[in-house]
Design a protein that fits this description.
Elements: H1 2-18, H2 21-27, H3 40-65, H4 71-92, H5 99-123, H6 125-133, E1 137-141, E2 147-151, E3 160-163, E4 172-178, E5 180-183, H7 185-188, E6 194-196, E7 201-202, E8 207-208, E9 213-219, H8 225-238, H9 242-273, H10 277-289, H11 293-312, E10 315-317, H12 320-325, E11 331-335, H13 336-340, E12 341-352, H14 357-367, H15 374-385, E13 394-399, E14 403-408, E15 411-416, H16 418-424, H17 430-441, E16 445-451, E17 454-465, H18 467-478, E18 482-486, H19 491-501, E19 505-507, H20 515-524, E20 529-533, H21 539-544, E21 547-551, E22 564-566, H22 572-597, H23 599-607, H24 619-638
Parallel strand pairs: 11-18, 11-20, 18-19, 20-21, 21-22
Antiparallel strand pairs: 1-2, 1-3, 3-9, 4-7, 4-9, 5-6, 5-8, 10-22, 12-17, 13-14, 14-15, 15-16, 16-17
Helix pairs in contact: 1-3, 1-5, 3-4, 3-5, 4-5, 4-10, 5-11, 5-24, 8-11, 9-10, 9-11, 9-22, 10-23, 10-24, 11-22, 11-24, 14-15, 18-22, 22-24
Length: about 650
């Protein structure tokens, strides 16, 4: 709308400029005269006012009705005063009007608003990109095995859909059959494709790559992760921060300042010269210069860019205040299980007595291959990560409460813990005793591989620390943000993980219902606290903290207790939050200073304080200065896109 009105108004302004005597005198040209040519400037100026100026007046009505003066009211005052005076000057011989200043003022205002709307629209482009990820149709697999194409909106829960190579996943679901890599970058921020096999969850909008998948639909429509992400980003852009509230108040203050300076200008120049065109021109110029157009753009544009930038990095901002407060955080409390660690058992150490570690791990994994026990899966996954070839074993036998038995090359293999050693009456030597003692102090579980009555190897298992946790703790310390860890595990386990990560402050054996008390303790010390947890059993602590950060999978984005949600379970994203918070706040302050600070110089000039030196600002120049300020604010906000959160 602003773009169309700008171009039409600009074209209609040309006759006004050409038939303005003052401009003809300045530039030394004359236009053809004909009957009614003296009305050309006024006629086209009226059309420009009605077509391009009235929309501003309409937008000012709610400000008057709500008694909340702002930029629309100031714009309306400026153009209305100049319009009314110019008509009066034309019909009552009050002097030369300034129709040309009126039309150029309206043109520049329309241009500024077009730039603003265009910038905000570009800043919201990530939402449009997310929306485009959703396919319009899905290939529904019927009970008889036939495949029918149908609208995605017609899908129902538990429907089975076929996702071909290169196609987008139409709905959240679970892979029922097939194997493929899926690109989830636009949703989770994960740059590498994710391997999907039977039982794996897939997210609507992610792109299947090389294999075909049959997916059982688990969520549709507004319940999908993608819809949730878009909803949260939209809410975040609409929510207001403290800085944005300050900008709104500043616009109101500027209105009263403009009215006051305009009134003072009118009084002083009326006393000095009388109330004439010059005096009114000074008043109008004051109103134009004080227009808070740039001020109204200063914060919303940064908000739009920062929230979309966060979404592109796998960070969902539910509450703008949370992102703004993040820059003030003194200490971050991480829940251990599932946050700093993977929340699942893994092999953290292997000890052998003269035997190759990989061979021992492969042999143990082969014995545990058919077991679904959490320890068995951890051992099997460890062997899989190392691409170990598992030897062939046979004659499996589960020993209830003690372990498992099998045969390999005619030898008896046993895998189990201390109770298995008791049953077999096997005594570990000093090497394995020291290994078990050290693991026990760290809260780790020890499993033994026994071959023909002799201990072959010992494996220590524990909740595996995420590789990203090491870098996250290091970077937070470099940013002068203290790190603490909170866990319900024993002190030995907590100390082991804290020492491994270099965390000096930790709280162990804390029940979920008492976690928020630890947050309160730190807040009483005068610290700004951020809490990072899974958003479920950490809910009280997340709510109590100055900034609650929920960490979890992309399908669990609507955690009501947190202000910020991490799509990926990656502690490094917490570092990104602080970097983005600091960068966006700096941009807001820079924009606010620029948008309002130029009035300190411009308002006195507009009032004519340097008129004795021949320095005067016309309404058109005032409008130009205001628009330049708007453009500078827009460009400065766009620079936020260049902030590299990954460094």
């Amino acid at each position: 709308m602003f773009r169309k009105r700008f171009w039409v108004s600009l074209l209609l302004s040309i006759p006004v400029l050409l038939y303005t005597p003052m401009l003809q005198m300045w530039f030394g040209f004359r236009m053809p005269e004909f009957m009614g040519s003296q009305w050309m400037a006024a006629l086209f100026a009226v059309i420009v006012f009605v077509y391009g100026g009235v929309p501003f007046i309409q937008m000012a009505v709610p400000e008057v009705r709500n008694r909340q003066p702002g930029m629309m009211l100031l714009i309306s005052l400026a153009i209305s005063v100049s319009f009314v005076y110019s008509l009066a000057a034309l019909f009552f011989n009050l002097g030369e009007g300034f129709f040309w200043e009126l039309v150029t003022l309206i043109d520049i205002m329309l241009l500024g608003h077009w730039i603003e709307m265009r910038s905000v629209r570009q800043a919201s482009g990530a939402l449009n990109a997310l929306a485009k990820l959703m396919p319009d149709t899905a290939e529904h697999i019927m009970p008889d095995g036939s495949v029918h194409t149908m609208p995605v909106s017609s899908l129902k829960l538990n429907d089975l859909v076929l996702v071909r190579p290169g196609a987008s996943v139409p709905a959240d679901g679970v892979v029922a059959d097939g194997e493929s890599d899926v690109n989830e970058a636009m949703i989770t921020g994960e740059s590498l494709p994710v391997k999907k096999v039977a039982g794996a969850k897939v997210i609507a909008g992610s792109i299947n790559q090389d294999g075909s998948l049959r997916v059982r639909v688990s969520a549709i429509g507004e319940q999908t992760a993608l819809a949730g992400i878009m909803r949260l980003v939209r809410e975040a852009q609409q929510s207001k921060s403290n800085t944005q509230i300050l900008a709104d108040k500043a616009a109101g203050w500027l209105f009263y300042l403009a009215i006051g300076v305009a009134a003072l200008t009118a009084i002083l120049w009326t006393i000095t010269l009388g109330f004439d065109l010059f005096t009114l021109e000074r008043v109008v110029t004051v109103l134009v210069i004080a227009c808070p157009h740039a001020l109204g753009l200063a914060v919303p544009l940064v908000v739009a860019i920062s929230t979309t930038s966060a979404a592109q990095n796998g960070i969902l901002v539910r509450n703008r205040l949370a992102l703004e407060t993040a820059r003030e955080i003194d200490i971050v409390i991480f829940d251990k299980t599932g946050t700093l660690t993977k929340g699942e058992q893994g092999v953290v150490a292997v000890k052998t007595n003269g035997v190759d570690e990989n061979h021992a791990l492969a042999l143990t994994a082969a014995v545990e291959a058919d077991s679904e026990h959490i320890i068995a899966r951890a051992i099997h996954d460890a062997a899989k990560e190392k691409n170990l070839h598992l030897p062939v074993v046979s004659d499996f036998e589960a020993i209830k409460g003690r372990g498992i038995r099998a045969k390999h090359n005619g030898k008896d293999l046993w895998v189990g813990g201390p109770r298995l050693l008791e049953m077999l009456n096997v005594q570990p030597d000093s090497v394995f005793l020291d290994f078990a003692s050290s693991a026990g102090k760290k809260g780790q579980t020890v499993v033994y591989l026994i071959v023909d009555g002799k201990i072959f190897a010992a494996l220590a298992l524990a909740d595996v620390i995420r590789p990203e946790s090491y870098a996250a703790i290091k970077k937070l310390n470099e940013m002068n943000v203290q790190v603490a860890m909170l866990t319900g595990d024993s002190k030995d386990v907590a100390k082991s993980v804290a020492d491994e990560l270099g965390i000096n402050l930790y709280f162990a054996e804390v029940l979920p219902e008492h976690k928020d008390q630890k947050v309160i303790e730190l807040q009483k010390q005068g610290k700004k606290v951020a809490m990072v947890g899974d958003g479920v059993n950490d809910a009280p602590a997340l709510t109590r903290a100055d900034v609650g950060i929920a960490i979890g999978s992309g399908t669990d984005v609507a955690v009501e207790s947190a202000g910020i949600i991490l799509v990926k379970s990656n502690p490094l994203d917490v570092v990104k939050i602080f970097k983005l918070s600091r960068a966006s706040y700096n941009k807001m302050i820079q924009n606010l200073i620029w948008a309002s600070g130029y009035n300190i110089v411009a308002l006195p000039l507009a009032a004519g304080i340097l008129s004795f030196a021949g320095i005067l600002l016309s309404p058109a120049v005032g409008a130009l200065l205001m628009s330049v300020s708007t453009i500078v604010v827009a460009i400065n906000a766009q620079l936020l896109r260049r902030v590299d959160l990954s460094e």
